[in-house]
UniProtKB/TrEMBL annotation, chain B:
PANTHER family: ANTIPORTER SUBUNIT MNHC2-RELATED
Lineage: Bacteria, Bacillati, Bacillota, Bacilli, Bacillales
Any single GO CC term annotated in Swiss-Prot or TrEMBL for this entry: plasma membrane
Compartment(s) where it occurs, according to its Swiss-Prot or TrEMBL record: Cell membrane
Family: Belongs to the CPA3 antiporters (TC 2.A.63) subunit C family.
Membrane topology recorded in Swiss-Prot or TrEMBL: Multi-pass membrane protein
UniProt protein name: Na(+)/H(+) antiporter subunit C
Alphabetized UniProt keyword annotations: Cell membrane, Membrane, Transmembrane, Transmembrane helix
Amino acid sequence: MLLLHFAIILPFLFAFIGPLLQKALPRVHTGWLMLPAPVFLFIYMMSLIPVNRERGPLQGKLSWMPSLGVDFDVYADGLGLLFALIITGIGSLVVLYSIYYLDKNKEKLTHFYVYLMLFMGAMLGLVLSDNAMVLYGFWELTSISSFLLIAFWHKRERSRYGALKSMVITVFGGLAMFAGFLLLYTVTGTFSIREWIAEAPSMANDALFLPAMLLVLLGAFTKSAQFPFHIWLPDAMEAPTPVSAYLHSATMVKAGIYLVARMSPVFAGQQAWLWLVSGFGVATLIYGSYRAMKQTDLKALLAFSTISQLGLVMSLFGLGSAAAFYTGTEQALFYSKATMAAVFHLINHAIFKGALFMTAGIVDHETGTRDIRRLGGLMAVMPISFTIAVIGAFSMAGIPPFNGFLSKEMFFTSVLNIREAELLGLHAWGALIPVIAWVASVFTFVYSMLFVFRTFGGKKSFEKLEKKPHEAPLGMLLPPVTLASLAIVFGLFPNLLSYSLIEPAMAAVHPNLLEPGKQFMVSIHLWHGFTAELYMTAGVVALGIVLFLLHRRTAVLHAPLFERVSLNRVYDSGLKLLDRFSGSVTKLYMTGSIRQYLIYIFVFIIAALGATLVSEGAVQLDTSGFADMSFYEAVIIIALILSAIAVPFANSRLMAIILTGVSGYMVTLFFVIFRAPDLALTQMIVETVSVALFLLCFYHLPKLKKEVVKLRFKLWNLLIAVGVGTVMTLVALSASGGSSFESISHYFLENSYTLAGGKNVVNVILVDFRGFDTMLEIVVLGIASYGIYALIRVKLKGDQEEGAIET
Amino acid sequence: MELYMSLAIGVLFTVGVYLVLSKSLLRIILGTSFLTHGVHLLLLTMSRLKTGAAPLLGEKADAYVDPLPQALILTSIVISFGVTSFFFVLAYKAYQKLGTDDMEQLRGSDDE
């Protein structure tokens, strides 16, 4: 049990004691009570960076379910720490922001912060766990807490819809990932990700390796909103803005990215991995940026922008895995630059996207709308928010001197580099990737400009707004200002991050690339000469400005794409269809008619028993040990069969009862013939009482009518009945045909007198050898009589109204 | 004998199943008692018939029939009697309350 374990558990503790504290200090805003947790964790994680650099990753074991190989093992290497810093850092800022954003008197704050702390703890556990099962547990916990946070305003229908949608999609992916982990476990016999990475080379030829990879990727793609699973993210924007800023820009949507980065050493070196991760990433990048241009709602724009940026990071991790195909360090390092870009952009995206979401929240808070068609001219009244928006959006668009520019340049470098990977046959397609990336960057530029200038630029037209806009309070501005400053600082001094965060994270993604003791060269410069990347950026800016100016006039750029076809529609109608399909299937076989259910049961008996009898060749007519038949027995058998067969044809109640009684007495006679005196006695008494009961009851039941039913009904019944009869006959024959071993009864016969002192062996068995059966059968009779008494005597409500149907 | 008994058991099962599949509750109850008889005879037949004297040690016979299935059948007779009686009264009450013994009409409500 390390401090690191405690750090993961701390948010859960806060989630637990927060409501109690709130009760004790009702005047204080819950956010202040919660703020120490993320701040402390952030400082602690910062302190781990030098530890990681000097002494290697911090590892800790905590036994949880050792028999299953599931232990709460923590492992803080560069990658885990990077994510932990993003989670705790942005977490602190978001908590601070939400203190000013959420009104203490209007909202259920304790709920909000409990969910938020649950989420923070789950997310920390996710990135710091070494055990795949524990990781999966935290993964699902993030899904659940995200579900709760999206539906925070649960009285709104849209919130509930968005929450459910995100839940369905992410849990679907989570379960797929779970299956993938189980497959990896069957291959390696361990859940430790460390050991998987160590065993990766020997795993590659296993038949389960590829399915495991696909399933794990499915989990990553759904969580990180990759195309076509991105549809939950825009609908998750119904959540309060702090939640959107935190979960849906900086942390939860990066969980899939984390998974890809973390599992990269296991799967890299597979062509499929590179193609899938890069392919889906690039597709998501272009699609998200295209859709983002068409949004009119600030948060929807940011949601699609997040989707596209996640695609960018995902594709960079995919391209970075090309390094695993090269043994020569020189070339491998060449391709690992993509990983560097990915890690760098991951940090940048968390920073500027958090700032932008908070800005959108401020705009919403101060004007009462997020629709860019109604906003405009806020520059004059909200200068600070405007500055933040400019920094964030320009960083997102990739304009110097902000940090987004640097990662964009590195992204272009990586996509240009990948053309040279001959190993992968990328010659033909390799040229396509830079083109797509470039076009997507143009779109990115356009929507970034839209975000700023549609909201803050243009004419003032405040009469349409609900509130008179003014600058937000200082506390609400502080977090986005912090983030915006970071965007500038990292833009001007990117090497602050180089060896503290980026290099250790790269080392975690490419553990086997370098000899021990060596480091990756990470040097990021704002200016690196006139290169192809720079010209590409210039082109992006030029074309982007043109498109931005044409944006209103060209319907292609802002009209919604394909009003008819959308993935949301596919999802919605798919769910409806499933619902209807399962409903109709259920209606088909669950009719409520007892006869139908009995038919299923009997048909199954016929099929199962009949098939078994035939396939096992069980029916062997070995008549050697059979007793012979006398005249009396023949008469009794014939009487039994005739009386039984006559019952269905009986037209009156009395006739049917008497015939049933006859067959009962015939059974009694059989017991006599087959040397079973006690059975004969009991059967006779029971049969007599039964017949009496029959008469008693049937006196009150309606007359037995000839059933007016279709002939088909009767034929089916007959067919099934004959089927069951035949099968049972065969069973009886095969059972009595050949006994495979001696009966145990000789023991009872020998010891009945000596041990139990009784000569009637059947009775001795009933009360001595097997007395428990008898005791419980007495209980059965007792219960039956109580039940009957209750049925007759207990008056239920509504009994007075004759014929009223109980519901 | 076992051969003919097996046939008789088959007939009892056939009649029982046929009755259980019919519409009126009354016939269904009759059907259950046929099924019960079928099972009891099946238990008896399976253990070989007429291999010796009745299992009473006072008989001093060389061989006795198997007493174990007889004990089982005895237990089963009593239990099925209890269940059948309960079933009778249930049918009676159901008819009293609902005014029909047609199983096709006793389908329960839709919102189950």
